[in-house]
Amino acid sequence: MAETSTTRLILRKYRAIIIAVTIFAICDIGVMGTNFYSSFQIAESAVSINLSGRQRMLSQRTTKALLLLQDDIGRGAGVVNGDIASLNELRFVVPLFNETLRGFRDGATVRGGDLRPVFLVQVETPASEDFVRETYEIWEPYLEKLRPLFLRTDGTVKIDYVENEKVNYANSFNEAELAAAVTYARENNLKILNLMNDLTTDLETVADQRAVRLRIIQLVGLTIALFNVIYTLFKSISDLVRGDRELTKARKETTEILSTVKEGLFLIDREHKLGSQFSESLSTVLRRNVEPEMPFLPILKSMVPQAVYDNTRDYIELLFGDRVKESLVADLNPLNEVEVEDNLGVKRYLNFNFNRVLEGGAISHLLVTVQDVTERVSLERQLDEAKDRSRKEVEVLLNLLQKEPEMLHQFFNTTKGVLEQINERLRNDDSTQEGRMHLLAFIMRAIHGIKGEAAALGAEMFESYAHGFEQELSVMRDRGEVRGEDFVRITVLLDGFYERLTSLSGIITRSAAKAKDHTPSAVSVEEQTELSFKENIEPLIRRIAADSGRDVSVVFDIADIGSLPKRIVRELNSIAIQLVRNAVKHGIETPQEREAHGKPRQGLIQIACHASDATADQYEFFVRDDGCGISVARIREKLVSSGQMTEEQAKRLSAKELIMKIFEPGFSTASEADRDAGRGVGMDVISEKVLKINGRLVLDSKVGEFTEFRVLFEA
Amino acid sequence: MAADVTALSDIDEREIQVFVEAVSRYFSQITGQKAEIRAAFLTNNERALPVFEFTGMIKISGDYYGAIYFSTDRFLLSRLLQIMNEPRHGEEHLLDAVGEIANTLAGNARQHFGEMMEVSVPLTMDGKESKNLKGLRDRPYVIMVRWKQYEASVIIDIKRKK
Amino acid sequence: MKLLIVDDSSIIRSRIARILSDSRLPAIQIVGMARTGTEAVALFQQHTPDLVTMDLTMPEMDGVESTEAMITLKPDSNILIISALSDKATAIKALKKGAKGFLYKPFNDEQLIHALLEIME
């Protein structure tokens, strides 16, 4: 199929030239044919002219011979014998004239000028025919009168000459017969002469016309041929020039494409050798020098593991074979997003694509495109990881939702409320630098609170987001200035938080139906509150302890918490989260430190909630750890080292004033900020929450022994 | 950890900055004084968009879709016209001025986002027309901008095609 | 067109059959389903199908060997490898033995139909 189409293409491309050449051939053959025919005719004409000229001469010779014969006989020879020259002359010229005349009339082979047989064509023009006919009218009676001269001994009369015939003439004519012939000759000789003259003239005219015609035909044919040659020449030259130009243009375009494309582009042939042209980026993409006609496989071999190399070699072979379907094996391309390593050990991902190139229906080459897809692949992997992570996070949340739907709802509502508060504050920003710093502190507290609660729930997804948020906020705070752009960043982060909440709400909604079917458990609401409080705090402590290398046990004494209003429990929950966080991070020492100080390796955290005065609805809630206690010296040191105060200023502060500092935003004694403590927000959050329930916070601590935070409040 | 923070947000602050900077640049080119971000917050889409009396809007389609608004009051626009030596401060001239700023936004967006965004010609609205504008996002971004003592807002309400 | 389905998973076998019956490709008629390579080759000899969908990992005789056996019996067989294999080398091996194309599991209806039509061309 491809072959016929190629032929068709060639035919179309060269049609003009093919036509021109055909015309030239036809002209040539035409002119040659006419030439041949005409020259043949001209030869015939020459014979005719020649012979009609001879007729004139023959008629004269006949008359002359007759007269001579009469004279010879009259002189007394009397009887005639065959040796009389005039008689012989007559017997030669008369048949010759007769056969020639017949030739003119009918067309016949006659004796030519040299007496050899020649074909004399019948005269063609009406004038000539007339001359011949008229001549006959005279000649026939003439010949009749000459017949006695041709009487043979056998009694027959034959005028016509037959070659090699032995003729015996009777020679028996008499004078009267001769005289009659002479008389006739005298009377008609001139007429015959004239007629033959006319015939000659006419024949000559015809010959002239033919010659002219031939010349014209030759001229026309040659002219056509000449034009044809000029056209062909012009056409093919212009085609060549145009073709060259197009080729140059195409080559230039190819070169341009090859020099601009970002992908590596090249052809490989059946011997796996590169083509003569390839894109300039090829060397860059492959990170190695590439030369035309270079074998492809060794290049590959240096880049990929042996197995991939083997597969690729097979794959290329399959593509060069015509059995497999190209589109159905693309998935098997071993060089799809293949990891390569260059000399420096830098890993990248390349994508090679192979496409068959057909030439005349057969696979001649493979077009190979190479792209560096490192960025895309690593992004995809990151995305996959992120997806995987968020899938796990969702699993955690779903799990939580099943076990603690109430908690999750609460978290959702609290967080949403906090975000709304933040946004409201942003909306009402008074744009003084001082106001902004306050706003920032507020946001940090709020986010820190969310982080703690998320951590308590094990909602990693929210915890880490809040942590990242917090980190960015702390950068702004430490800069000591909040810029306009910072607010854009904060809103973006806020929006992201909302997005997370939206997806959480999606999860909650989807599970709502299940929650409805939830059969009420045998435990009371009070017991449930107590239980969920424990379940909330305990894992958090365990996780933080594990993360920070502490060994901690926890004791709860919170039976009374069940009778408290939900609003208060929520706040206590938040307070407890921050307090245990601080207790583990800042209170409990590492097991080694504890041992060194003669304490049990395992630290203890006590969490309790009691009615201190049941009648007056007075309650106390405390978190106590047997850790290192709050060290005034350390607070002072920290204030100085963080540049918040000079050593002088710090020295002037009383112990109480120093301790109060830990409740100010941005204060932390932990040396490194991680997500569990150290950002100096925790205490800040606690005092805010305590205020919310109209409570009082009492701190009791002894260096090296314990720290106790006590919240006194009225239910 | 920090990279994680924006993983769920479909809009990047860089995109927001492009529009805010376009406005800022406009003011510094025309008046020699920059406009600054005063505040930024999210608006709730249950309410109408918080716009001033005069609003210019450009519609976005392509990889992102939605709209960007520039909104301000007559005082700012009058002052701007005054600086530009435009003596006429009628309603239509104020609308023209706000449209002109929106046009700058459009130009910058085209330049910055190229093929990712198709940007419409600006549409201008007075207070009546913009009263009940609704956002597309759940929480459109409102960036409050201050130029001298005047206030304006850039509202970014675009979503990335999923 | 006679089709032989070769796969050790009954789910995949019936899925291919269902896709084909849903697609109303009139030209394709299922002449057999095989669970193992040995079974496949036996059915192949019995029916000489025009088209075979071939799993790679199967008990008794794997897809590569089955492909080879079928090509020996009928060199111009149209065999489409359908496999979840992440090991490209095995699939390439089957193609070297004479299979004409490859389709990844999982596939959707359209991909299967497209692959079959392509291979019959």
Task: Give an overview in words.
The complex is a heterotrimer of chains A (715), B (162) and C (121). With 715 residues, chain A is of the alpha+beta class. In chain A, the strands form 3 sheets. Chain A has a 5-stranded antiparallel beta sheet. Chain A is built from 21 helices and 12 strands. Chain B is an alpha+beta fold and 162 residues long. Chain B is built from 3 helices and 7 strands. In chain B, strands 1, 2, 3, 4, 5, 6 and 7 form a 7-stranded antiparallel beta sheet that branches. Chain B is globular. The relative contact order of chain B is 0.28. Chain C is an alpha/beta fold and 121 residues long. In chain C, strands 2-1-3-4-5 form a 5-stranded parallel beta sheet, with helices on both faces. In chain C, 40% of the residues are buried. Chains in contact: A-B, A-C. Chain A binds chain B through residues 386, 390, 423, 426-427, 429, 431, 464-465, 467-469, 471-472, 483-485, 487-496, 498-500, 502-503, and chain B through 1-2, 4-13, 16-17, 20, 36-42, 138-139, 141-143, 146.
* Strands of chain B, total number: 7
Which percent range describes the beta-strand content of chain B? 25-35%
User: Structural class of chain B, please?
Assistant: alpha+beta
CATH class of chain C: Alpha Beta
What's the level 1 CATH class of chain B?
Alpha Beta
Radius of gyration of chain C: 13 Å
Summarize the structure.
Chain A is α+β, with helices and mostly antiparallel strands and 715 residues long. Chain A contains 21 helices and twelve strands.
What distinguishing features does this structure have?
heterotrimer, A: 715 residues, alpha+beta, f41 fragment of flagellin, N-terminal domain, Beta-Lactamase, Four Helix Bundle (Hemerythrin (Met), subunit A), 4 domains, five-stranded antiparallel beta sheet, five-stranded mixed beta sheet, 21 helices, 12 strands, C: 121 residues, alpha/beta, Rossmann fold, five-stranded parallel beta sheet, 5 helices, 47% helix, globular
Topology summary:
The complex is a heterotrimer of chains A (715), B (162) and C (121).
Chain A: H1 2-13, H2 15-77, H3 85-106, E1 108-111, E2 117-120, H4 126-146, H5 175-260, E3 264-269, E4 274-278, H6 281-286, H7 296-301, H8 306-320, H9 326-329, E5 338-341, E6 347-359, E7 362-372, H10 374-403, H11 405-427, H12 433-457, H13 460-479, H14 484-517, H15 525-548, E8 552-557, H16 566-587, H17 591-596, E9 603-613, E10 618-625, H18 632-641, H19 647-652, H20 655-661, H21 682-692, E11 696-702, E12 706-714
Parallel strand pairs in A: 8-9
Antiparallel strand pairs in A: 1-2, 3-4, 3-7, 5-6, 6-7, 9-10, 10-12, 11-12
Chain B: H1 13-31, E1 36-42, E2 54-62, E3 64-72, H2 74-83, H3 91-113, E4 117-119, E5 123-125, E6 141-147, E7 150-160
Antiparallel strand pairs in B: 1-6, 2-3, 2-4, 2-5, 3-7, 6-7
Helix pairs in contact in B: 1-3, 2-3
Chain C: E1 2-6, H1 10-23, E2 29-34, H2 37-47, E3 51-54, H3 63-73, E4 78-83, H4 88-96, E5 101-104, H5 109-120
Parallel strand pairs in C: 1-2, 1-3, 3-4, 4-5
